[in-house]
Amino acid sequence: SSNLVFRHQKMDAKIGRFFESVGTFFSGGDQIPWCDRDIVAGCEREVAEAAKGESEELKSECIMRLSWALVHSRQPEDVQRGIAMLEASLANTASPLQKREKMYLLAVGYYRSGDYTRSRQLVEKCLEIAPDWRQAQTLKKTIEDHITKDGVIGIGIAATAVGLLAGGVVVNRKGLWANTSFEHPHKARKKAFPDMSLATAPS
């Protein structure tokens, strides 16, 4: 129907604008973009249509665009799909440029999924290939900031736990005097010296 065609045209335009904005992302800009479900759906449709044709280059390009969209998605399941696609295709990638870009996208995917260690490993490999790559440098700094922040929070939690544990031990020790047949020395002293003036030690 005409409405469906219009919707597809609108989505294609949206995808076009999105990839125009990220087309320069490998060479400039500091922010890691997000993409929505419409972009992912549009890229999936592109891959399906490219699969019907004979151009391997077009198929590869569409798959790369879909991988990009998936790891930049706000949906965790999309990010995991993107990681799986990139991991599966990385071993068969001969082009150093494509390999670098796929490793970068994998680093983004692992970063978004919270695996900062794996993300940093991948982005460091990217920087071995291209030390001046601004996006990889920015991503590495972002990852390290998260690791530092999480480490500080972790130390704080551990310190609090130790404090609570120590407090619990003190409470338990105080409780022992009430829960055993032995009397606290101060109480025993009071019994021995009912007239407190006779006590030689403080009560």
Automatic annotation (TrEMBL):
Keyword Transmembrane among UniProt keywords: yes
UniProt GO cellular component terms: mitochondrial outer membrane; peroxisomal membrane
PANTHER family per record: MITOCHONDRIAL FISSION 1 PROTEIN (PTHR13247:SF0), TETRATRICOPEPTIDE REPEAT PROTEIN 11 TPR REPEAT PROTEIN 11 (PTHR13247)
Protein's membrane topology: Single-pass membrane protein
Naturally occurring in which organism (per UniProt): Dillenia turbinata
Subcellular location(s) of the protein: Mitochondrion outer membrane; Peroxisome membrane
Keywords: Membrane, Mitochondrion, Mitochondrion outer membrane, Peroxisome biogenesis, Transmembrane, Transmembrane helix
Database matches in Gene3D superfamilies: Tetratricopeptide repeat domain
Xref: InterPro entries: Fis1 (IPR016543), Fis1_cytosol (IPR033745), Fis1_TPR_C (IPR028061), Fis1_TPR_N (IPR028058), TPR-like_helical_dom_sf (IPR011990)
Record has Membrane as a keyword: yes
Protein name: Fis1, N-terminal tetratricopeptide repeat
